[in-house]
Design a protein that fits this description.
single chain; 430 residues; alpha+beta; 8-stranded mixed sheet; 20 strands
Length: 430
Amino acid sequence: MFSKVSVPIRYQGIVRTVDSDVCVVGGGPAGMMLAVLLVRQGLSVSVLEQHADFLRDFRGDTIHASTLNLMDELGWGDEFLRLPHQKARTLSGVFGDREYTFGDCARLPGKHQYIALMPQWDFLDFLAGKAAEYEGFTLLRSTAVDGLLREEPGRRVTGVAAAGPDGRVEVRARLTVACDGRHSDVRRLLGIEPRVYGAPMDVLWFRVPREAGDPEGVTFIVGAGIGLVLIDRGDYFQVAYVIPKGGFEQVRAAGLEALVENVGKLAPSLAGRGEVLKSWDDVSKLTVVINRLRRWDHAGVLLIGDAAHAMSPMGGVGVNLAVQDAVAAARILAPHLRAARDGGAIPGAMFKSLDAQLTRVQLRRWYPTAATQLMQRALGKGVIARVLSSDQPLPVPRFVQLADRFPILQGLPARGVAIGFLPEHIGPTT
């Protein structure tokens, strides 16, 4: 398919070699969306996913309106929405004893005036199923990347080395795309570090039963020194219990009973339901990080999604940005990847031409990434930090009061969350 690379390090054991136009590391939203868009255009793509399946709790389960629009553009919208999901149509918060609405998705343009709440594993299984309809798609599960293949030591990356369920695997490709999250192995192997921005909180995730008559969609509840988010998942709530940054040990020392009691105080309708939490094993901790790479590409490698820019869980926008990154990358890179494939062995000039396009992806996606992170940092400093550092209930933020009083303003927060900055579209090359 292309000139053979020389591997500077030889591993012990069985080595399986896979040749692909593109090697995608990580089977999350960015990786699976990129893979399906590229194989639709006749390119061969290998996806390496370190887990055996997509069944992990407490991943981002929001499918934003902009992503639903992409499903429609691909012709999959009706089929996709037959998967079980709930619809969040408003953004609201409880301050004291009153609920304020500050975002209304009915004011969004287009067909999908809501955010779909769907288990991320269903979303990823759907994309994997669509990709599997094409001959050029390979999904390697339980396969963890632990090395980079290079033309020569320190030179252009030409694939990855990994440990698979049946032994060593080498995937050789013209382009490697790191979609392996905020703890990216590819980023570590490249020896690069993102710039880290402050985040005032961490989040504890757990489930409590949901009953008829409970709030639908997503509800934010603010108390003295604590915050709570209830995410409607049909027969249960996925609860985000917001704590001060680095405060988990203090919360744990206070005991599980104190956590359950606080949930009941903030959301009286849930009082007693927290008894389903039998031990700390029922609680997962998310260390909140906001960071961004200065440069998203290196010779032969592109980093997108959380591997390039980790987001706060506020609004669940990280999933949306990852998907949008993938759409932009596929649209910009596919023609050049096809040209490289059709040209046979790639001379140095062709490599340089392909690598030059990687910078275009970052240039396209830098503004929505930076703008979203700036918004998250402002909310973190202006609202979340004040909530978590106070022993008194936070006064209702001015923007919440204004949006509740003047409903026309509710379209702005709804658009910022459900569509985002600079949404991508499926063009003729994707």
